[in-house]
Amino acid sequence: VGDKPIWEQTGSSFIQHCYQLFDKDRTQLDAIYIDASCLTSEGQQFHGKAATVEKLSSLPFQKIQYSLTARDYQPMPHSCIISMVVDPIMGFHHMFLLKNTNDAWVCANDAFRLALHNFG
Amino acid sequence: MRDKLIWEQTESSFIQHYYQLFDKDRTQVGTIYIDASCLMWEGQQFQGKTAIVEKLSSLLFQKMKVDEDPITGFHQMSLMFLLKNISEAWVCTNDMFRLALLNFG
Q1: A6-114 sits in which CATH class?
Q2: Which residue in A86, A110, A114 has the most chain B C-beta atoms within 10 A of its own C-beta, making it the best mutation to test that interface?
Q3: In a domain, B32, yes or no
Q4: B61 CA: distance to closest CA in chain A (Å)
């Protein structure tokens, strides 16, 4: 079994860390975002670290079953990594664009959709 | 009703154009990608315009609508495009697709 590519290792540990903070202490998400970050949550846009963390802290659901998700990672120019997380059980799609700034990884762009299934 | 933000306008006309090419003439999908483009399709990686067009051309479903299995379940598709403006044209540099089959059996 070959080693995973570096962008996959970096992306995967970043996302795992991010979801753990989301589950346990959302105030610490402040370290993940920068002032240039954009979040789109269910079609609503939020710009900047403060607005993003405020929105994420206000979301009601508690835990994300990270182990059940499908995760894809790709390298991008200028030391960026793009990731997509799809959870077929809870029905959410989450896209992250990670950027390396001063030797630390931050989330520059974040877009989230919860797909609610209507069977009526 | 507000006007769409410029990036929303670019993105929605790009995607509409993309789906039309996908449905009507997949060989032309090559114009959307560049040699540095990456596609991930159901976890498999394809690098560069040629490999991507070959993969997309080989897909069985005819339109951006999966054949429905009448026995169980519903299909959920997730498609992410990263667009870049190069020499005043929009191209897709990164593309990811996941089909989540939901079984309720």
Answers
A1: alpha beta
A2: A86
A3: yes
A4: 21
